């Protein structure tokens, strides 16, 4: 399919950061964006690449009033030989499609979307950073654009992709973070949209996150909505607990985002001979394991942060520390195993990587 490209004039090009070591996350954006539109009569049309900028929308657009939207993230990595690589792109496309289905939205055609994505990355390839542990973050998003005030699925949508160079998600990089266990607010409930990557999930967590940060914590650990006992996610990441005899992560029961990094870590841990269990784990079990000496490590996983060690958990006035407050050996090993594949420093036996010519 021919995808027209509107080039950015030289005087309109965006300013690139000078120091790649200080990129942060989500602060800079590349020159172009890919877009396509949908209406129920014509389907998906007008695939194009335009200069990054403002999206003109009517004030009555359904996304503003009923939060009908989905998004997803993945990364593009620059390897030592200059080649660009995408990691598990098909899994990210599939997750986006599942999120769209849950939110009553039509997933854009995979072939056009993938062609547009690759063309966009080639066009803005100079924005892909090369410093260690940096990448080009790729944000896919779809919003309901129909100007209509009424509670029903919209009939018009816009899909777009924007990109930008990123470094570490947390300011401290791989330094362990402090987490507050949240027992007042709830992120998701059975039958809800917890497994979909939609903005409402994250907006619902802002109050708890803000209160936790005011107390000196980096994020919150969510408990289940019914019993307020079983662990679900930490902030916007999946969570893992390394006990003496097994590595445990909560199961995917519909309230937890099915993380691509989560699945990758499970696969890599098992390849190292580590016993991995996807099972319910309560906050009481974690604290009991800490008391008995069975708790060895805690870490979160996600596309943005990759692997994020947790130094301590605070719950109802008590704190437990994992791995003496330092990054644990398993977390360090898994981070290296995963990023070595992404950056081409190790073989890819799983077929996870797609190179962009």
Please outline the helices and strands.
Blueprint: E1 32-39, E2 43-51, H1 62-66, E3 69-78, E4 84-87, H2 89-102, H3 110-123, E5 135-144, E6 156-166, E7 177-182, H4 199-203, H5 206-214, E8 219-223, E9 231-234, E10 238-243, E11 247-249, H6 260-271, E12 276-278, H7 283-292, E13 295-302, E14 306-315, E15 318-321, H8 329-342, E16 353-356
Parallel strand pairs: 7-8, 7-14, 11-12
Antiparallel strand pairs: 1-2, 1-6, 3-4, 3-5, 4-16, 5-6, 8-9, 10-11, 10-13, 13-14, 14-15
Helix pairs in contact: 6-8
Short description:
This protein has 357 residues and is α+β, with helices and mostly antiparallel strands. The chain contains 8 helices and 16 strands.
Q: Could you characterize what this model shows?
A:
It is a single chain. With 357 residues, the protein is α+β, with helices and mostly antiparallel strands. 23% of the residues lie in helices and 29% in strands. The protein is built from eight helices and 16 strands. Strands 7, 8, 9, 10, 11, 12, 13, 14 and 15 form a nine-stranded mixed β-sheet that branches. Helix 6 packs across helix 8.
């Amino acid at each position: 399919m021919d995808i027209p490209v509107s080039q950015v004039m030289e005087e309109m090009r965006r300013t690139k950061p000078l120091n790649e070591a200080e990129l942060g996350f989500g602060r800079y954006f590349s020159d172009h964006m890919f877009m396509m539109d949908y209406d129920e009569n014509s389907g998906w049309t007008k695939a194009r690449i335009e200069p990054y900028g403002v999206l003109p929308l009517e004030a009555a657009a359904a996304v503003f009033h009923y939060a009908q939207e989905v998004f997803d993230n993945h990364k593009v990595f620059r390897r030592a030989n200059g080649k660009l690589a995408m990691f598990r792109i098909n899994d990210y496309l599939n997750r986006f499609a599942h999120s769209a289905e849950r939110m009553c939205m039509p997933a854009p055609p995979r072939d056009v979307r993938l062609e547009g994505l690759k063309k966009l990355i080639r066009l803005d390839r100079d924005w892909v950073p090369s410093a260690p542990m940096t990448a080009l973050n790729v944000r896919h998003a779809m919003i309901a654009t129909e100007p209509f005030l009424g509670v029903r699925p919209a009939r018009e949508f816009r899909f777009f992709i924007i990109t930008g160079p990123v470094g570490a998600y947390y300011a401290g990089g791989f330094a362990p973070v402090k987490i507050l266990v949240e027992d007042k607010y709830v992120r998701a409930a059975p039958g809800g949209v917890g497994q979909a990557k939609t903005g409402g999930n994250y907006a619902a967590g802002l109050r708890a996150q803000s209160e936790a940060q005011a107390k000196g914590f980096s994020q919150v650990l969510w408990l289940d909505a019914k019993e307020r006992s079983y662990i679900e996610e930490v902030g916007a990441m999946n969570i893992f607990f390394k006990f003496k005899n097994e590595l445990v992560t909560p199961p995917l029961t519909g309230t937890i985002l099915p993380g691509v990094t989560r699945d990758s870590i499970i696969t890599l841990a098992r390849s190292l001979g580590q016993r991995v269990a996807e099972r319910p784990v309560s906050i009481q079990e974690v604290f009991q394991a800490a008391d008995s000496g069975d708790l060895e490590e805690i870490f979160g996983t996600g596309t943005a942060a990759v692997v994020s060690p947790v130094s301590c958990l605070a719950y109802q006035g008590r704190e437990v520390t994992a791995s003496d407050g330092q990054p644990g050996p398993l977390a360090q090993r898994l981070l290296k195993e995963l990023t070595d594949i992404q950056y081409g420093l190790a073989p890819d036996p799983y077929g996870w990587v797609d190179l962009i010519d």
